[in-house]
Amino acid sequence: MILEIVVLVVKILVLVAILMGGFAYTMLLERRLLGFFQLRLGPNRVGPGGMLQPIADALKMMLKEDMMPAGADSLVYRLAPVIAGFAALSVDAVIPFGAPIHLFGLTISLDIANPSIGLLLAFALSSLGVYGIVLGGWASQNKYSLLGGIRATAQIISYELAMGLSVMGVLLMSHTASLEGIVLAQKAQGWFWLPQIVPFLIFMVTAIAETNRTPFDLPEAESELVAGYHTEYSGMRFALYYVAEYINMITQSGLIVTLFFGGWLGPSFLPPIIWYFIKVIIAIFVFVWIRATLPRFRYDKLMSFGWKILLPIAFLYFVGTAAFVSGVL
Amino acid sequence: MGSTTGFFTPDYSDEIATSAKEVKSDTMIINLGPQHPSTHGVLRVRLELDGERVVDAQPVIGYLHTGFEKTAESLSYQQCNTITDRLDYLAPMTNNLAYVLAVEKLMDIEVPKRAQYIRVLFSELTRIASHLVWLGTHVMDLGAMSLFFYTMREREIILDMIEAASGVRMNPSYFRVGGLAYDLPDGFMEKLQEFLKDLPRWMKSFRTLFEDNPLINERLKGIATITQEQALAWSVTGPNLRATGLNLDLRKAEPYSGYEDFEFSVPLKTGCDAYARFWVRVEEMYESAGILEQCLSKIEPRGVYMTSDRKVALPPRDQIYGDMEALIHQFKLVTQGFPVPEGEVYQCVEGPRGEMGFYIVSDGGPRPYRWRARTPSFYNLQTMPIMCKDGLVADVITAIGSIDIMLGDVDK
Predict the structure, then answer these.
(1) ipTM of the predicted structure?
(2) Pick from A103, A318, B55, B197: most CB atoms within 10 A?
(3) Is residue B1 pLDDT above 50, yes or no?
(4) SS3 string of A37-72?
(5) What is the pTM assigned to this prediction?
């Protein structure tokens, strides 16, 4: 019992360390990649190839003054970034990032928890993130922030349903909602991206919306709302929103890999955990690539896009998958 | 609260209203700018919003007002040239051109044909450079940031050419009353040829980013419309007017500086919306390239570039030390400038943003008595309330980008 708790605590600490480090270096990766996409170099001065840039950034953020506008709701204003950060970090608890390993006679699964409703839990936790944005935007007492918060609300109701429906096919095919179970099912049936190609694309689109990145960066919308919901934030609270955004990106990449690309599965010449991270990095690259290429949606168009296009397609494909799996077709 | 159209007279009383009691409860007033990422400088738009829907949008201008028109009255005619660069600093050459043509008209100076063609050459280069900045910033306002860097790369080549000719990148003052400041540098035509050879290639690569892109199309189509009647009523000119289907291009309507010798067509669209304005400008870049192509054969690499009239043109360096008369001309021109006969004149050219004109009144002295600039952006910006009404906040940004304003041009 004690041993299990120790293992659990160690796993949590390791995961958080990986995620925070992952956040820092995802940000560096994105800045370097955007630099190359845009004929620039990106940050390359601090350390070899800019490798120490995230540390310098973190130090700067920590030393910045933490300001709060007069008239802001102080409790909500302080709480909002924490909610965003928490929601982003906690989702990763259920994503397995490697096959179970055997260590000192123990079998350790490479996730914090493997509940039978893992997928639902992941969705539930990641949807909490929008509260951080809405509350932050509302509590800032700034009109741009308020508009950003409103947009975040409009956005989440436009894509969440399509997102939820798009993974139902995977659920049906694997007969389980446990993420480890889904990966194991793909070992038997082949990766799900091909039979579930349409849901995969819908999930990809909605995952971008979930992470509030271009072309769905409406709550932030630099060229319209200055900085949207986090206009008034500074210092570590601002950084926390950044942490949330980038960890969300890692998480969504992890979900894409787990649901559609066989998680840690791969040829045996590399360990499973390496395969998992290679796939996640490829997914992150695609995220950055899309950001460098596409313009932004208008928020009313996003709503009609979510409701009139994504949702019916996801639903039809879901019904089709159900008919196929149950043998009707 | 101000008129429904035209420029808004600043009334600062409601800006500091912080409690809900003092502002109308059903709408929200928001100041977009003057410090804002996409107001292209220091434009301030006073937006009245109902949710995200725009009830009213009033441009508030003057944050970049520098008093150019008054300053010009205390400068000699040559010195005024440097002010024109700074009006619309993305298209300095067409400003120069409008000004020097105005003075030349008043003084009745004949400019050598070659110099006129070189002026055409640089006007069109400037047009491409200006449209490149517009394209990059407009698409960046829509949220796609990479194109901006690509357009800036190509603009850099044009700036290099301008620098090679005039010595300066941004404020060249290359056109002088009577001709040009210097002759074309060595190898300029080869550089231009290379540029023109590359242009279709990079334009094609740009077009892959925005042509038939559903995201771009839906952000532009039917957004920020100005009908032809409204455009004429508010003195809109340039690509913004031609996007309403009216064929008015001063290069065709009132040819100047030898434009009548060039063959080109005027891109027209009838959509009246941001999408039409977008494509008018993109097609104009190809037309400008066509004119530059003709310049290659029309302009000899070496030749006369300044009028021989010593009343306005500096004598050649080598004559000054040996020729008494040349020395006197040099002294008079440098210390006093040249007198301009009494009278008034208006001369306009087709700038990248529309009709760029100068109205000059001379009292016979070496300094203008009155000096007025008819800057296109100032008039185009007046349509903001019409364009933004009933749109969303995102459309306000589209509208600002689609009329291609330049705040130096607006505020003067």
Answers:
(1) 0.82
(2) A318
(3) no
(4) HCCCCCCCCCCHHHCCHHHHHHHHHHHCCCCCCCCC
(5) 0.86
